């Protein structure tokens, strides 16, 4: 079932939904971009349709709504500690692209299905979250390659929307929301998936340990020793990077009372692999790029079996200050692996 709703009515609908749900969507922050006088589009709580940026790809991913860049996990004193609590227990609705909905499945792998351990902080957010699918342009944006990764369509969403000028087309899937749309024009509408991108990526076929070892010493990685700034822009914007670190913050210098926070970490930045004894692994940009690429298009699927970690959102290409292209790198790797396998494709 579908509906055609005027922009004014859709705005009223969101305001009604916000009484029961916390709603998150891509939102514009003027003059807060990476460069002077530029905007940034990232996820934040919204209360009206006008706040939603629906005609651009957000600079940062929907994961921000469920897993903030920084969050407090516990409070401590000399003698005791307690876990942080969710201040607002209301369920969440998150406007997201198909690739971002798929990215949450990768988050589920890491935080809910990894070695029999469930991350309680992620789980409590995940269990109360539903998604609103936003239709993308026919071929996505210029850096997208979701079709190559099989993430151009999604199934797990409450309802889908297409912003169409002065009206909004809605596809409903969750009957719990039907009452919000009552009284609007009923139409036949389904969100159109992305089945083709301008950018095509071929995943390398790494089927044995020998090939995997050989990939580590490929000359192509040395290019990034000079090019990569190791700034972490790609991983912070990535919709599937899950790494974090923790640190304790004392409230004052003369007390042991404080809080423990976890904050996003990156395999591209210095300090990520530091160990006791002043040891560190993957010190060069090439080593770090190789580690990230292999994790995204080989290691995750090898471990969890179902899908690659990368969902083809292209944000890493968008954010790199020196224009390193992840998608181009994967295609180069595929060509190199063909050679290792004894032929060219």
UniProtKB/TrEMBL annotation:
Keyword annotations of the record: Iron, Iron-sulfur, Metal-binding
PANTHER family hit by this protein: ANAEROBIC SULFITE REDUCTASE SUBUNIT A
Annotated Pfam families: Fer4_22
Stated name of the protein: Sulfite reductase, subunit A
SUPFAM superfamilies: alpha-helical ferredoxin
Highest taxon above the source species: Bacteria
InterPro entries: 4Fe4S_Fe-S-bd, 4Fe4S_Fe_S_CS, Sulphite_reductase_A
GO MF annotation terms: iron-sulfur cluster binding; metal ion binding
Protein's UniProt keywords contain Cytoplasm: no
Limits of the 4Fe-4S ferredoxin-type domain: 301-329
């Amino acid at each position: 079932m579908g509906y055609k709703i005027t922009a004014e009515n859709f705005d009223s609908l969101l305001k009604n939904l916000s009484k029961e749900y916390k709603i998150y969507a891509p939102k514009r922050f003027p003059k807060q971009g990476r460069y002077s006088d530029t905007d940034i589009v990232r996820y934040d709580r919204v209360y009206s349709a006008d706040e939603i940026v629906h005609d651009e790809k957000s600079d940062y991913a929907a994961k921000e709504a469920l897993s903030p860049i920084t969050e407090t996990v516990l409070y401590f004193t000399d003698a005791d500690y307690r876990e942080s609590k969710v201040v607002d227990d209301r369920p969440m609705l998150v406007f997201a692209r198909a690739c971002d909905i798929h990215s949450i499945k990768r988050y589920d792998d890491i935080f809910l299905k990894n070695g029999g351990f469930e991350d309680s902080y992620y789980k409590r957010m995940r269990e109360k979250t539903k998604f609103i699918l936003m239709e993308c342009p026919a071929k996505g944006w210029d850096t997208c390659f979701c079709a190559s990764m099989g993430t151009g369509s999604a199934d797990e969403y409450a309802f889908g929307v297409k912003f169409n000028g002065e009206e909004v087309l809605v596809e409903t899937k969750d009957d719990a929301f039907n009452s919000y749309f009552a009284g609007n024009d009923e139409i036949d509408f389904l969100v159109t998936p992305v089945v083709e991108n301008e950018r095509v990526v071929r995943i390398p076929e790494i089927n044995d340990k020998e090939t995997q070892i050989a990939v580590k010493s490929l000359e192509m990685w040395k290019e990034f020793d000079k090019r990569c700034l190791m700034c972490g822009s790609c991983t912070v914007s990535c919709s599937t990077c899950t790494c974090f670190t923790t640190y304790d913050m004392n409230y004052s210098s003369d007390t042991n009372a404080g809080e423990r926070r976890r904050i996003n970490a990156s395999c591209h930045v210095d300090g990520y692999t530091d160990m006791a004894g002043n040891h560190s692994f993957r010190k060069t940009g090439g080593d770090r790029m190789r580690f990230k690429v292999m994790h995204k298009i080989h290691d995750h699927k090898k471990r969890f079996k179902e899908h690659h970690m990368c969902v083809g959102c292209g944000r890493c290409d968008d954010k790199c200050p020196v224009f390193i292209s992840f998608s181009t790198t994967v295609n180069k790797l595929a060509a190199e692996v063909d050679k290792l396998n004894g032929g060219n494709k």
